[in-house]
Amino acid sequence: MKRSFFSINDLSESREIYESKPKAIGLIFLYVLIAMIITGVFFSFYYKREVTIEVRADINYAEVSRTDKVLKAKIYIPSQEIANISVNDEVKIFIENTNQTFNSKIENISPDSINNQEGQMFYIAESILENKETSQDNEVAKITTNEKQNNVSIIVDSKRYIDYILVLLNFSN
After folding, report:
1. Would you call 83 helix, strand, or coil by DSSP?
2. Greatest CA separation for the chain
3. Phi and psi of 98, rounded to 5°?
4. pTM above 0.70?
């Protein structure tokens, strides 16, 4: 049995589409899409994301000598986050109720965990906050005279966004 071929005239619609110019809205959409992809790739390689841990802390003045006092933080770190912090780590501590960030160094971490009333496990870390010149002494007083614990964010590291995305997608550890 012989194969039958179609007439080239039957393909006129597809040829018209192939030879026609694309519509302006389609080109604009394509260019915007390409620009967004390039911007996203550039952003993910060159910008960093801060790795933070949300914790609670008691912050009080501690006497170093008779004339000098420093802000000392007793930080309650959840047991699932303890792997992100070690002794002598340089961290930034952001205190939420004053919107202040202090540079700090983790001085000590308790070897054993403690449990609170809800059954959550915590490790206690001690840190001395950097002596910062502040024009708002009442803000420091607000930190230290609080009877309840302060909500604190510890900024432990910064990662490139691409590394963060690869970890989320399980392509990297």
Report:
1. helix
2. 109
3. -115, -10
4. no
